[in-house]
Design a protein that fits this description.
By secondary structure, the chain is α+β, with helices and mostly antiparallel strands. The protein has three domains: about 80 residues, Sandwich (Immunoglobulin-like), CATH 2.60.40.1860; about 180 residues, Immunoglobulin-like (Sandwich), CATH 2.60.40.1700; about 325 residues, L-arginine/glycine Amidinotransferase, Chain A, CATH 3.75.10.10. About 15% of the residues lie in helices and about 30% in strands. The strands form twelve sheets. The chain has a five-stranded antiparallel sheet, with no helix packed on it. Strands 9-17-16-11-14 form a five-stranded mixed sheet, with no helix packed on it. It is elongated and about 125 Å long. It is found in: Cytoplasm. It holds the Pfam family PAD_N. GO terms for molecular function: calcium ion binding; protein-arginine deiminase activity.
């Protein structure tokens, strides 16, 4: 019901010399006197200088002015001095959203105007509409000026205006929906057309006209009369960011007509609050849905291995051919214009005043499985990025605009590792996660030169020092590797860099040494004093459930079997994981990337609801 009206019983409305008053009203009208008069048990009530009546009605009016309240004024001797009558029209107005997050837009939820995290929290949720319902001329739906397909409404949050009252509002009164200038870049509201609304929306040609946006911060909405509902669809336009917490307010006001040229006055405002859903990464422990790879003129062997792995694992494979990938083989940085479609969108951030480096690629953006650290739960895991060493003054960093964006999502608090020691500089060159049946449900895999040298020394001790790596053109023996002092010094440096990151990951993810598996991987340092993998980097793998697609290392063969593959297979079999080795040597490894760099995976979402996080 419209908020209670206030009727002042002061000298402006009371006849001169008034000392007392009494009140009568229609059955559906209630009133309260403030300040409360003493309970004298007699009428009329004494009138003082600040007496007010607070008037409410418990049901909506069926016709205008169908109720009234009258005040009788009395003099010193209780003689009647005059009478004031207020004619009342009650209109029920409620702007409603799914504030209890059960999929239904309930009527007038008391928590609809606020937002709270946690399993006992409340507040409506809004998606960023960054996919495309179009099949041609693709643009993200949020970039389109209108709703072109009904399916697009599923990406928006419903909002319902419920009204109850007479057939029309009193003369001059109107309903207006409005947003703030600050929210206008983050949200749009679309309406629906009905027969009763045709006149109001006569300037729109679509069934779902734009009501509010950056060009229209407020707009009159029709009052339909009787018991009516009007559906609206709210669209998120941007994810939370450094300058946007993610909260959006939409208001609906009843305006009273002005007189003598003054502006209209709001006499009632209802308000709802949404939080824009954050951008969430999915870790390797979630089940895959679809795998993406690029086709180039020289990666036939890689594609052949990937097809075999994906088909064996039972998932879908999407190959982006040359005409759509622009010759770019690095599927981690996917060709979004071609993949954009229903329920497949993207977000970008532009570094206008910053230098962009290779650290601003997807290989340098990973996420852990869910963890608990010192009693604090991260049920969606934690984002992991690579940056320069904290004390470095000239190192490469992921751009600030991207880092700010990642931190603003809140639900996967980022961890910054030191990755600038690598030539490419990506965290996926020395770490990944695989599922495990015990402990925390996963293992952290780390590249380890120490483990590599231990393996090679074991081969030498077993009289396999002449076993050869690589092919005829680049072959090298185990003995030659072990006697290369420069290579050993370079790997000591690499190991110290990885050890520093190991300590960070143990601390920030709550890991023990038993949660970590060291993989035998060697590196060498380039002229720029940055490291690259000496042979295909087995940690740079693709994880498809219990099946791993691992760069084929072309290690020394013992009894006809690659010793590196044998060690890797043994380590993973203990976790119930199956290893497939994919030849990416010429088409990826020599270009400083591997299997993970050349693929991408769409995974099932978390079962945990992000809004249930305790903040």
């Amino acid at each position: 019901i419209i908020q209670r009206d206030r009727l002042s019983l002061d000298s402006r409305s009371a006849p001169p010399s008034s000392k007392y008053f009494s009140v009568q009203c229609s059955p559906r009208v209630q009133y309260r006197i403030t300040p409360p008069p003493p309970e004298s048990g007699t009428l009329p009530t004494t009138l003082n200088g600040n007496t007010m009546l607070l008037i409410t009605m418990d049901t909506a009016s069926e016709v205008g002015n169908d109720s009234k309240l009258s005040v009788m004024y009395y003099g010193e001797k209780t003689e009647v001095l005059g009478k004031a009558v207020v004619h009342l029209t009650a209109v029920e107005i409620s702007l409603d959203v799914d504030a209890d997050r059960d999929g239904q837009v309930e009527r007038n939820n008391p928590n609809k105007g606020s937002w709270m995290w946690g399993p006992n929290g409340h507040g409506a949720i809004l998606l960023v509409n960054c996919d495309s319902e179009r099949t041609y001329g693709k643009r993200r739906d949020s970039e389109c000026a209108e709703v072109t397909r009904v399916s697009d409404l599923k990406d928006m949050s419903p909002m319902v205006l419920r009204t109850s009252g007479p057939a029309k509002l009193p003369e001059g009164y109107k309903l207006t929906m409005h947003i703030t200038q600050g929210d206008a870049e983050s949200v749009r509201v679309f309406g629906t057309r009905s027969t009763a609304e045709n006149l109001f929306y006569k300037n729109f040609v679509k069934d779902y006209p734009l009501v509010l946006g950056s060009e229209d911060l407020s707009k009159e909405v029709p009052y339909l009369g009787g018991n009516a509902e009007m559906n609206f669809y709210v669209e998120g336009l941007r994810f939370p960011d450094k300058d946007f917490e993610g909260l959006i307010s939409i208001s609906l006001s009843l305006l009273e007509p002005s007189s003598q040229g003054f502006p209209e006055t709001p006499i009632f405002t209802d308000r709802v609050v949404f939080r824009v859903a954050p951008w969430i990464m999915t870790p390797n422990t979630l089940n895959p849905v679809e795998v993406f790879v690029c086709s180039t003129s020289d990666n036939y062997q890689f594609l052949k291995g990937m097809r075999r792995l994906v088909e064996h694992s039972g998932y879908k494979l999407k190959v982006c051919h040359q005409y759509m990938n622009r010759g770019d083989r690095w599927m981690q940085d996917f060709p979004y214009d071609e993949l954009l479609g229903p329920d497949f969108g993207y977000v970008t951030r532009m570094a206008y005043n910053e230098e962009v480096s290779s650290l601003d690629s997807f290989g340098n953006l990973e996420v852990s499985p869910p963890v608990t650290i010192n009693g604090k739960n991260y049920p969606l895991g934690r984002i992991i990025i690579g940056v320069a060493f904290p004390t470095a003054t000239k190192g490469r960093n992921m751009t600030k605009v991207v880092q700010d964006f990642l931190w603003a999502q809140k639900v996967q608090e980022p961890i910054a590792l030191f990755s600038d020691w690598l030539h490419v500089g990506h965290v996926d060159e020395f770490m990944t996660f695989v599922p495990a049946p015990d402990k925390k449900g996963f293992r952290l895999l780390l590249a380890s030169p120490d483990a590599g040298y231990k393996l090679f020394r074991g081969l030498q001790n077993d009289r396999h020092g002449q076993a050869k790596m690589f092919d005829a053109e680049e072959e090298i023996t185990v003995d030659e590797i072990l006697c290369d002092d420069k290579l050993r010094a370079e790997n000591n440096y690499v190991q110290s860099c990885i050890d520093w990151n190991r300590d960070v990951l143990k601390r920030e993810l709550g890991l023990d040494d038993d949660d970590i598996i060291d993989l035998p991987i060697l590196f060498h340092v380039t002229e720029e004093n940055r490291a690259v993998a000496y042979y295909p980097d087995m940690v740079n793998m693709i994880v498809l459930g219990k099946n791993l697609g691992i760069p084929k290392p072309f290690g020394p063969k013992v009894d006809g079997r690659c010793a590196l593959e044998a060690e890797m297979t043994s380590l993973m079999e203990g976790l119930g994981l199956s290893c497939t080795y994919i030849d990416d040597f010429a088409s990826y490894h020599k270009l400083l990337g591997e299997v993970h760099c050349g693929s991408n995976v769409r995974r099932e979402p978390f079962s945990f609801k992000w809004w249930n996080l305790e903040m």
